[in-house]
Amino acid sequence: MNNASAVKALWDLRPGEAATVTGFGDTLPVSYQGRVMEFGFQPGARVRCLLNPGFGAPRVYGISNSVFSLDREIAAAVHVAINNSVEGLA
Amino acid sequence: MRRVLLLGSPNSGKSSLFNRLTGLSQRVANYPGITVDVASGPMVSLPDTELVDFPGTYSLEPISGEEAIAVSFLNEALADDNVSHVLCVADATRLEKCLHFILQVIRECQLHQKPVTILANMSDVIRDNQLHFDPIGLSEALGVQVISVSARESQGFESLVECLGVDAALNLHADRNWRETPNEILRGTAQQLAEKFSPKGDVLINSQLRLDRFFLSTALGGLAFFAIMFLFFQSIFTWSAPIMDAVESVVSGLGQAVVPLIPNKVIADFVADALFGGVGAFLVFVPQIFVLTLVIGIMEDSGYLARAALICHRPLRVFGLTGKSFIPLLSGVACAIPAIYAARSVDSPRQRMMTYLAIPLMPCSARLPVYALLIATFIPSDTALFGLIGWQGMALFAIYFFGMLVALLVTGFVSKASKNKQPEQPFVLELPPYRLPTAKPLLRNAWNRCQQFVTQAGKIILAVTMVVWVLGYFPNGGADLGQSWLGTLGHFVEPVFAPLGLDWRYGIAILTSFLAREVFVGTLGTIFGIEGSEENMLPLVDHIQASGLPLGSGIALLVFFAVALQCVSTVVILAREGSSRLALTMLVSYLVGAYLLSLLVFQIVSVLL
Q1: pLDDT tens digits, residue range B352-389?
Q2: Reported pTM
């Protein structure tokens, strides 16, 4: 387990890493910011990176019991604070 | 009849619930004024109530054309006096992604004085995984009734029927007024409610993650994708063969029984040649349409289609498309028309236009009879691996692959050649849980698709075969086709098709196929005058082989049909969804491209062989 609190982009999470959403970057269109918030990517929500399919493909993130695939444009604009690491998901 | 609207986010189990509540007795039609398929049907428990299945959407703030149409439909429906109640379906196991939509729906219903009830679906999953969900608390917080239901186990339906029977006014809670609440506040409220009422934990993810690790892994996932696509095409051709044989036998038996009973020679010839020869030859391919629709349905219902969209996103972007184009493109393998409608889900107008460009090049089911006929003419029916893999299936895979390759090359070229004034739209997609598909709705859907194919294409084919038969039968009573009106017309257009090694008969068949591609087979059936027991593909294959059609012309025909836009309905829908200019440009450029490509192929094959 790791209890760091570094702020970085959601895209930078490795499979198995968990983090808390802290905010959104300016590069994300407002409509998409609204949509990802509706999906549960709200400031304060706990998100974990589930899979990185590789070759630049969209990555897979879990929020509660839902799973979403986000590409770099969105995931790089979602700011997160790493506060925990979940074992066994890599 | 009073109407009840059924709303919900995608993957909330809305369609399953609809099927359960209506007993699969729904009809699918375009809602007046809006080109979107809306299923509706009387409820089993309340026959005087029509349940209307609203198109799924995540939010009433649309980000795609599809969602904009869904929202517009909702506004229209809420103003309809016949709509007496709104049911909003939510996935109780994933409540956090539904709550904002639920609040938006409640607000709109309150504004329109319509009672609304929330159906918290998946109560069986909540129970089986020992999750905690408090429908009473949520009901108090929202100010509307919340009923726990399970579409899979048909649970909670008594409470729902009871709720719909209650006077509408009783359902309007004055103490929770969302009418004036802006979206930003609703979003914050949704988050607070999610924290309080969403089932805690992520146990459901872990089971789905095991499968995702395989299907989305870099190496194995790619292999699995190609294996699934390979099996998909094999199923269309090789596995559906026994059903096709059965249909052939039925059509053949009917022909043998009916034609001898007709005393008048002209009518007997008409029934034998135009009906059993033309329409009968096309009916043989209905089982393939059934298998095709069934397999696409299985992929969609199992949750794999969303994974395939993710896998394809990166490669498709190279060609100016997006992962969200994958589902319209795969739908295009069944039929271009629903595929064009499905392209509304592509958020970016530019990528949607690229998807439109690609869809008519996807090997749709209307091409299947033509491909099947030509492949059966030139490729032996030998099989390997206990009959699971056949050469004809391999040939079909190759021509399907060719169509898809051309589609990607076209979009890639247009994408590179045209300037992009807008930034690329980002990609966000929910990955639904893997589920075992339910047989009944899938079979029903495949059956509906076949019915649609037969009734819509069948009308055109019947009309065309009748005209072709009359032109070919007169003025000499069918004695010499070459001297008939059809023969005269065919000889007139022959110079256009001669460079492809095709004589006037194939020229006529190509011309008629511009109404619908599958007419090609029926027209050839009529031209070759297949009668009685011969109303099936094999005798038509024999006739084509006997006509001396060279291999180069066969391949050129395959290429021509893979590229040309020979479907009036597709052109009309493209004009409606895109623009008339786009539709006309595609019609002309794909026709010219198809002719030049097939000419090139014929010349190359002729030199090589």
Answers
A1: 899 999 999 998 878 888 998 899 898 887 777 777 77
A2: 0.75
Beta bridge partners of B88: B7, B118
Is there a contact between A35 and B430 if contact means CB atoms under 8 Å apart?
A: no
Top residue of A36, A46, A67 to mutate, by most chain B CBs within 10 Å, is A67
A86 contacts chain B (CB < 8 A): no
Which DSSP letter does residue B198 get? S
Q: Count Cβ atoms below 10 Å from residue B65 Cβ, excluding itself.
A: 17
pLDDT band at B31 (very low <50, low <70, confident <90, very high): very low
Contact (CB, 8 A) for B101 and B109: no
Buried b (16+ CB within 10 A) or exposed e, A28-55: bbeebbbbbbbbbbbeebbbbbbbbbee
Q: Is the peptide bond before B475 cis (omega within 30 degrees of 0)?
A: yes
Please choose, from the candidates B154, B115, B139, the residue with its C-alpha nearest in 3D space to the C-alpha of residue B21.
B154
Distance CA B324, CA B332 (A): 13
Q: Do A53 and B221 touch (CB under 8 A)?
A: yes
Task: Give the SS3 label for residue B56.
Answer: coil
* Helix B439-473 / helix B485-497 crossing angle, nearest 10 deg: 110
Structure tokens at B422: 């807008």
Residue B531, SS3 per DSSP: coil
- Here the tokens at position A55 are 């070759």
**CA distances in angstroms from B167 to B5, B83, B84, B164, B364, listed in the order given:** 17, 14, 10, 8, 49
Domain range list for chain A: 5-83
Task: Tell me, yes or no, if B96 comes closer than 8 A to chain A by beta carbon.
Answer: yes
Tokens of B9: 């986010």
In DSSP notation, B551-571 reads: HHHHHHHHHHHHH----HHHH
Q: Where are the beta strands (DSSP E) in B477-604?
A: none
Map B418-466 to HEC letters.
CCCCCCCCCCEEECCCCCCCCHHHHHHHHHHHHHHHHHHHHHHHHHHHH
Give me the residues of B, 323-382, that contact A with CB < 8 A.
323
Exposed (0-12), middle (13-18) or buried (19+): which is B198, by Cβ within 10 Å? buried
Please tell me whether residue B383 adopts helix, strand or coil conformation: strand
What integer pLDDT is reported at residue B602 of this predicted model?
94
- Put simply, the answer to whether B190 touches A32 (Cβ < 8 Å) is no
Segment holding B51, helix H or strand E: strand B49-53
Tokens of A24: 């959104």
Residue B418 identity: S
A32 to B201: CB separation less than 8 angstroms, yes or no: no
Per CB-CB distance under 8 Å, the chain B contacts of A51 are 209, 212-213, 216
Burial of B76 by CB count in 10 Å (0-12 exposed, 13-18 middle, 19+ buried)? middle
Radius of gyration of chain B (CA): 27
HSE at residue B381, side-chain half, CA atoms within 13 A, is 11
pLDDT higher than 90, residue B554 = yes
Question: Residue B407: which residues within 8 A CB-CB, separation 6 or more?
Answer: B329, B357, B358, B359, B361, B362
* Domain A5-83 superfamily per CATH: Ferrous iron transport protein A (FeoA) (2.30.30.90)
The shortest C-alpha distance from A8 to chain B (Å) reads 19
Q: Is A34's CB within 8 Å of B187's CB?
A: yes
Which residues, 6 or more positions from B287, have their beta carbon under 8 angstroms from its beta carbon?
Answer: B240, B243, B244, B246, B247
- Answer whether B361's CB lies under 8 Å from B562's CB: yes
* Higher pLDDT among residues B65 and A86, named by residue: B65
Is the minimum CB–CB distance between A64 and chain B shorter than 8 Å? yes
DSSP secondary structure letter of residue B150: B
Q: What is the 3-state secondary structure (H, E, C) of B287-306?
A: HHHHHHHHHHHHHHHHCHHH
Is A64's CB within 8 Å of B323's CB?
no
Tokens of A20: 């808390």
